[in-house]
Amino acid sequence: MRTGTETTKRPxxxxxxxxxxxxxxRVRGVFLAKGFGGASLDELSEVAGLNRPSLYAAFGDKExxxxxxxxxxxERSIAALNGVLGGGGTIQQRLAKxxxxxxxxxxxxxxxxxxxxxxxxxxxxxxxxxxxxxxAELLAGIEKSLETAFAASDLPRDPTPAARARMAGAxxxxxxxxxxxxxxxxxxxxxxxxxxxxxxx
Length: 201
Description:
The protein has 9 helices and 2 strands, in the order E-E-H-H-H-H-H-H-H-H-H. With 201 residues, the chain is mainly alpha-helical. It has a two-stranded antiparallel sheet. The model is unreliable at 1-15 (pLDDT under 50).
């Protein structure tokens, strides 16, 4: 305000602080439930606890926010995958544990969220090249982790570790699709358990 010849400036507010991982986890739920196209900026802003200008300043436009979220989800999933594959037990036991953990994640109540890469990114990939690129990078990361585990195992080298990794990844994606369309958890577990010896023969 102006008083006499002096102008008193209103102090700027402190930038709003937030936990990036927490915000991305919240918006991930919206993207999983409604997809990229179906999620509105108002919904994303509300669940993030940030107004739209703050959300844009932090993450960019809607596509950039989606990509941030996709990377967050994918990189966290790969870290969890590496943790299981690097643990104890035979390769068969570790692969089965990977699948059981994935099923638990994909079918978590109350809304069986499924896999963000398979369930939403694959849908948007044809019309959003950047989303397609990031999804492909993440899938390659998953298969690289699997290949490393197979290469370190005592399994025969025919099929090659790379081929086994592609098969194991394909089963993981198939589990995600089945979970997304509502196949019973017991059936998903039976399917995964049946595939482990096929991959590890």
